[in-house]
Design brief:
single chain; 409 residues; alpha+beta; OB fold (Dihydrolipoamide Acetyltransferase, E2P); 3 domains; 6-stranded mixed β-sheet; 14 helices; globular; Nre; DNA damage; Nre_C
C-alpha cells in the first residue's frame, strides 16, 4: 500500500520527487519487476529455497500456505534472513522478495489429517540451509509485490500444482528432539532460542505446525508476534534481579527511513514505544499523532493496540541488550517514520533498527533534564508531544518534568 496523490504524480512523473520521498515508489517497483520478470515468469520453478515458507491469515481457519522458491540455485539464504539485512536498502529488500515465488494452496490449520504438501513444507522449514526445491504452478505467477508491516514483502505467487524437495534437508539434532518432544510451544520457542537459533527460524517452525502439544498451522504474521512476545516475556523475567544502569543513556540510529532514539534510565525495568509517522510519510498526516504502548516490570496487559507488532520487535532488542549487560533499566524507544520509508517491509526492520542503535556508543547524562534536553535536539517531532503521551515519564518526578518544560508547578 502506497499513499500517493494522483494529481502530484501526474505532474511529477517520478522525476521531481514532489511527494518528498527519495525515490519514486511506483517507478522503483516497475524497475525491479522488469529485472526479475524474465526469471519468474514461468509455471515450473526449480531452485534453492532459502528455505522459506509463508502462511497467510485470510480465510482462517482455512489458510493459504506454501513454499517460497527462487529460480536460482546455490546459497540463497540472504533472500529470507531479515536479521542479516543490516546494510540493506528498501529496494534491496523488494528485489530479494520479488525473486521468491510463492506456490500456495489452501489447507485447514488442523493437522490431524495427513497432507503430503504439509509434510514436505515441514521438512523444508526444519532445514537450516538452502534446499533444492521443485515446484509446478497451475499457471504463471502473478507478478506483484505485496508490502506488509509485519512480515517481509511477498513477491509473485500462484497456485501450486506439485511441490517436491529435491534433496535431504539439513536438520540439527537439537531441532529434531524439540520437535519430537511433547512440550508446550512456549517452552519449545525458549529452548531453541537459548540453543542459538534465531527467531525467524523458530517462527518458521511454529508457522508450519511443528511446535506445541497441539500443533497446528499458524499464520506467519501471528507467528512473528507470538515468538517475539514469548521471548520478550522470558527475557523480561530474567533481568529483574539485575542492578539498574547507573546513568541516563541516549542511543540513536537511522535505518530504512526510520529514525530510532532510545532512552535508558537508571530505574526498575519498564518499557514504552512511542511512534510517529511524520508528515509526508506513508501513513503520516498534517498533524502527526504519537502512538503509544507500554508495560511495567509485570509485562504488557493484553495486546499492543496502537503500535502492534512494532512493540514486540523493539522490546525484544532492548531486552537482549539489557540481559547481555546483566542490567535492568526503564526504556523508551522513540520511532519516527520519515518519507524515506516509502513502502512497508516488515517489523524486522524495527528489530534491526533498535538493535543497531543499542550497539552504538551512548551519550550519558546524570539527570533526566539533561537527557530530555538531548532528546529535544535529536527528535524531529516536538518533545512536548511525546511527553504528553508517555506513561513512563508521567510516572517520574512530575515537578522535574514541568520544570524542564518551563511550566509552573
Amino acid at each position: 500500500m502506497i499513499k500517493l496523490n494522483s494529481n502530484i504524480c501526474a505532474i511529477c512523473k517520478g522525476r521531481k520527487l514532489l511527494c518528498g520521498r527519495p525515490v519514486c515508489p511506483i517507478l522503483e517497483k516497475i524497475r525491479i519487476a522488469r529485472e526479475v520478470t524474465p526469471l519468474v515468469n514461468r509455471e515450473d520453478i526449480f531452485g534453492s529455497s532459502p528455505p522459506s515458507v509463508f502462511v497467510g491469515e485470510y480465510g482462517y481457519p482455512k489458510v493459504r500456505i506454501g513454499p517460497l522458491v527462487p529460480p536460482i540455485e546455490g546459497d540463497t539464504s540472504y533472500l529470507d534472513n531479515p536479521l542479516k539485512w543490516e546494510n540493506a536498502r528498501i529496494e534491496d529488500v523488494i528485489k530479494f522478495r520479488s525473486i521468491l515465488v510463492l506456490g500456495q494452496t489452501r489447507v485447514h490449520i488442523d493437522l490431524r489429517r495427513s497432507d503430503r504438501i504439509i509434510e514436505e513444507l515441514q521438512e523444508l522449514a526444519m532445514s537450516i540451509k538452502p534446499i533444492d526445491t521443485e515446484m509446478l504452478l497451475k499457471r504463471k505467477p502473478i507478478l506483484k509485490v505485496i508490502p506488509s508491516e509485519f512480515a517481509p514483502p511477498l513477491g509473485p505467487s500462484g497456485e501450486v500444482k506439485n511441490f517436491e524437495i529435491a534433496e535431504n534437508p539439513k536438520v540439527p539434532k537439537k531441532v529434531e528432539r524439540v520437535v519430537g518432544d511433547e512440550i508446550k510451544a512456549k517452552d519449545a520457542v525458549i529452548t531453541l532460542y537459548e540453543s542459538g537459533f534465531d527467531e525467524y527460524y523458530i517462527i518458521r517452525l511454529l508457522s508450519v505446525g511443528l511446535l506445541g502439544l497441539k500443533p497446528r498451522i499458524v499464520p506467519t504474521r501471528w507467528s512473528i508476534t507470538a515468538v517475539q512476545d514469548t521471548l520478550g516475556n522470558y527475557l523480561r523475567k530474567s533481568i529483574l534481579n539485575f542492578e539498574p544502569i547507573e546513568t541516563y543513556e541516549v542511543y540513536t540510529s537511522e535505518f530504512l527511513g526510520n529514525r530510532y532514539v532510545i532512552l535508558l534510565m537508571p530505574r526498575r525495568y519498564s518499557f514504552e514505544l512511542l511512534e510517529v509517522w511524520l508528515k509526508g510519510s506513508l501513513f503520516g498526516s498534517e498533524d502527526p499523532v504519537v502512538l503509544h504502548d507500554c508495560e511495567d516490570y509485570r509485562g504488557i496487559k493484553g495486546y499492543a493496540e496502537e503500535t502492534t507488532g512494532a512493540y514486540y520487535a523493539a522490546r525484544l532488542s532492548v531486552l537482549e541488550h539489557l540481559r547481555r549487560r546483566k542490567r535492568q533499566a526503564s526504556a523508551i524507544v522513540f520511532r519516527e517514520v520519515t518519507p524515506a520509508y516509502y513502502t512497508p517491509v516488515g517489523v524486522w526492520q524495527i528489530r534491526v533498527g533498535v538493535k543497531k542503535a543499542l550497539e552504538g556508543i551512548p551519550e550519558k547524562f546524570y539527570t533526566l533534564e539533561d537527557a530530555l534536553n538531548r532528546l529535544r535536539v535529536k527528535l524531529k517531532h516536538p518533545l512536548e508531544r511525546y511527553l504528553a503521551r508517555s506513561w513512563i515519564l508521567k510516572q517520574l518526578n512530575q515537578r522535574s518534568i514541568t520544570s524542564f518544560l518551563g511550566v509552573r508547578s
